[in-house]
Amino acid sequence: MKLGVFMVLFGGRKLEDALDYVASKGLKAVEIGTGGNPGKAHCNPAELLENEAKLKEFKHAVESRGLTISALSCHGNPLHPQKHLAQADHEDFVNSVKLAEKLGVEVVNTFSGCPGDHENAKYPNWPVAPWPNDYQEILAWQWENKVIPYWTEQAKFAADHHVKIGLELHGGFSVHTPATLLRLREAAGEAIGANLDPSHMWWQGIDPVQAIHILGRAGAIHHFHAKDTVIDPINVNRYGLTDMQPYTNMLERAWQFRSVGYGHDVKTWADIISALRLVGYDYVVSIEHEDGLMSIEEGFSKAVANLQQVLIEESLGDMWWV
C-alpha cells in the first residue's frame, strides 16, 4: 500500500509547492480535487482537456517528484433537485472521468448525491427512519427514479473510459453505508465501489474493520481515506450521532473529525490496515485533514507519522511470517 494525501488540504499553495512539501514527507501519492466541494485549486479538468500542453505540464509536475495520482475527486450532488446545481456537479464528474482516462488515473471519487422527495422538490431529502411510512415511500421513489438510473448510466460511462467510481459513504447522501453501496453496485455495475472513509463509519455507529470486510469481500473498495473521528461520551447522549450542530461548535458536538490517531489509537488503525490487506486492497491510503483542533501542518504531520508507523510495522510483520 502507498501513503498519500488529499491535496485539497493544501489548496492555498501553488501546485508545485504543495507537491514538493508532500514529497518531502515521504508520501508516494496525491488525490487531486477536480470540482464540486473539493474545488479546482490545483486542477481544472475542462482546461486541461482542451490544452494538451497544460495537460503534459500538469502530469510532469506530479511524476517528476516521484508521485502518482491515486484519484481525481469531485465530491458533489449530481442528484440535487435544483437542476442547475445538479448539472454543475454532473459536468465536473464527466470532465473528471475524461481527464482521469487521459492521465491514467484509476479512480474518480465523489458522492452518490441525494435527490429531493418528489420531481419538483427544491432541497435534498435524506430519509433515515422506516416510520412514518412516508419516508419509505420517499426512499423507494428516490432509488427507483433517480439514484439507480443516474448511476447506471454513469457507471457505464466510467467503464467505457477505463475508470472506476469511488463513492464516499457519507451521511446526507443516498449511499452512506456498506449496504447502500452494495445495493447500488448490484444495480449499476462493478465500476461502482467505495471511497471508504472510516471517520464516516464511526459516527454512524459502524465498525470500519467490519465495513472493510463487507465491502472488500465483494471487491467493492476502490479507494481509501484516512481520517479519524472522536465521539464525546457525554454529548452523544444529549444530541445523538445525528447531531446537527455546526462543526465549529466543537465543545458541544456529539462527535468531531480528528487527525489519524487522535480519535482512535494506533492499534485500531493497525487493525484497519490489516483488514485492508486481508481483503486484498493494495492501493493508496489517502490522508484527509478536517481536524479543527490542529493546524494543517500539525494535523497532516501527525497523521503521516502515525500511518507510517503502522505501515512499517505491517511490512515487518509480513517479513517475519516469510
Automatic annotation (TrEMBL):
Keywords: Isomerase. The keyword Isomerase applies. Gene3D superfamilies: Divalent-metal-dependent TIM barrel enzymes. GO terms for molecular function: isomerase activity. Residues 19-303 form the Xylose isomerase-like TIM barrel domain. It holds the Pfam family AP_endonuc_2. PANTHER family: HYDROXYPYRUVATE ISOMERASE, XYLOSE ISOMERASE-LIKE TIM BARREL DOMAIN-CONTAINING PROTEIN. This is Xylose isomerase.
